[in-house]
Amino acid sequence: xxxxxxxxxxxxxxxxxxxxxxxxxxxxxxxxxxxxxxxxxxxxxxxxxxxxxxxxxxxxxxxxxxxxxxxxxxxxxxxxxxxxxxxxxxxxxxxxxxxxxxxxxxxxxxxxxxxxxxxxxxxxxxxxxxxxxxxxxxxxxxxxxxxxxxxxxxxxxxxxxxxxxxxxxxxxxxxxxxxxxxxxxxxxxxxxxxxxxxxxxxxxxxxxxxxxxxxxxxxxxxxxxxxxxxxxxxxxxxxxxxxxxxxxxxxxxxxxxxxxxxxxxxxxxxxxxxxxxxxxxxxxxxxxxxxxxxxxxxxxxxxxxxxxxxxxxxxxxxxxxxxxxxxxxxxxxxxxxxxxxxxxxxxxxxxxxxxxxxxxxxxxxxxxxxxxxxxxxxxxxxxxxxxxxxxxxxxxxxxxxxxxxxxxxxxxxxxxxxxxxxxxxxxxxxxxxxxxxxx
Length: 439
Hints:
Elements: E1 5-6, E2 9-10, H1 29-46, E3 59-63, E4 68-71, E5 81-83, E6 86-90, E7 100-104, E8 107-113, H2 120-135, H3 155-173, H4 177-197, H5 201-223, H6 227-240, H7 252-266, H8 280-288, H9 297-304, H10 309-336, E9 339-343, E10 348-350, E11 357-358, E12 364-366, E13 369-373, E14 376-380, E15 384-386, E16 392-396, E17 400-401, E18 405-408, E19 411-415, E20 420-423, E21 430-433
Parallel strand pairs: 3-8
Antiparallel strand pairs: 1-2, 3-4, 4-6, 5-6, 7-8, 9-16, 10-13, 11-12, 12-15, 13-14, 14-19, 15-16, 17-18, 18-19, 20-21
């Protein structure tokens, strides 16, 4: 069993263990209790209107350096100790953590890293976003699948996505109904052309929008009081992610709230239609009676003028040149030179979705990554390749080894007892073998 990507990383799947002595309480307990009250208040204000269930439930706050935990309730295995109205403990060293939903010590938690944002609006948006991840399994949404979204690291994919963002921003901000509809149509036009160029993109992007996109929409709707505040938060999402090094794992944080708020206006019952997995843009196209037959190149070129398409394309062309150099480095590191390949079976993984780089059919390169599996804990600071199906993680060949410690260029691996380094499939490659079988 393994955990899927979430807000700014991936979840840890947990196991029980002996209660650990609590670290010094770096999270002020009264402040933590206030966060729990804040989350309960957001849930009460929503009243189940968004998803038909209460957003609030078990919550854990985690201080990353000390791994000190503060929960709003007890766990099932006695790992947390009561302190007034909260419960404290220490997250075991082998467990990963991130802003996400995570099962640990017999409870499914909303897990959040401390400190939370100081700005109340951003903090409430983040809280509501993470509350959604915990209830997602109750909503009969399509099963979540890992997606590559390699098209969003290409010249045309990035260009058309940013035109879509600009059109969505105009649609949200337009005071006249006709202007909102026109801009929303432009956004769907740019997306439709992206899907014409990259036929697999619709399914791949829809997977992430049904996870992080719906979560961020929930954050905006439940975390912001009043329509104006919600529009402002969605507009910010459409601008802040332009600076992300890569869009392949972060784009849905921007598109989810924008399409969600437009659907709230034009198709109020849209959330009840999600069980079938219909993409958000198709729901909006149906509501606005928009379709795009024939060749889209000419209308895309014409409408792009309204969104400063020419300078954007010039900027993305320069970035594409740099990307090709980076891909050449990836080929040398992960394809041509000796490597260490680690199988993924019971993976727990933590990463920043803003940095994930697509590497063609080979998968995705994660500049920084922490992975736990049966064989131990891998810490990466200078890049690791994960194959598209998440069957293996690859790093450069080890430069030094001991019985329990492996190290290479920008990575270290703490090997669990009973596991050892063995030759890999190619000459010069390595993998690891467990106590019962060789891999």
